[in-house]
Amino acid sequence: MELGLGYALLAAFVWGGYLFGLKQYFEGYPATTLTVCVNAFAIAFYLPVTLRALANGAGTAFASLSALDAGVVALTICATAAAFVLFLHAIAAGDVSYVTPINKIVPALVVPIEVLVLGEVLTPIQLVGVVVATSAIYVANYRAGGLLDPFRRIVRSRPAQLALLSAALYAVSDVGKRVALQELGIPTALWVPVLLAGILLVLLVPGVRDRPDELRADVPKFAAAGAFVATGEHVTSLAFSLVPASVASPIVNTQAILVVLLGGVVLGEDHFRVRILAAVLAVAGVTLIAL
Description:
The protein is mainly alpha-helical. It has 13 helices and no strands.
């Protein structure tokens, strides 16, 4: 358990830095193009790990998958692809320090899915965690005014809507990762390239169609982002292979605090204190969920 928690914490730092880098260095790129290019480099970086696993006979893990198992894998890939593209649209339309606390309530959505689908038991303290994590959305949208104004702002805010939809899809993705890595027993060294390649294929046609002219000049940036993704997916998959999704997901999503700090300090985004509070509430809530 302790090793899995350590991997989840490392993943939080990797993904936090990666999400900040997307806002800082890739603004203006179509979401599909960005995802396809970054994943292509990530697969290349991860190739030695995959080849070593295949040489050790890990490829037999896919031979025993049923049609239902393959459907779970496909659903996880599609949910991950859609969630990431929606998140990119959200941070393109709004501040990263505003969007991230809303998007990182994923664990509050993971828990009910695990309860309904996998038979996990929700404790009272986890119910409190769901309420606290959800309150982060209210705080992130709070400005001076009436108590109902944040709800009106959520309804009107395109970035908030995209972030919430992305969070729902990430919740499906996280549960799917847990099933693939634990119940189906797919090795991490094979799951990572399958996930990355699947996302690339899902988004390939729109990604190629939307290719901007400056793509070649930014190859070094795409390579660096690919290294982050390969590392992030590896340590995230290790975490999900060792602990339940309702435990790993909250820790991985503590990346919200890092992203908000970087957005406020480096990018000078507005309402910094309110968004820090929202991020802290999101992390506190998901921590209670993990207990």
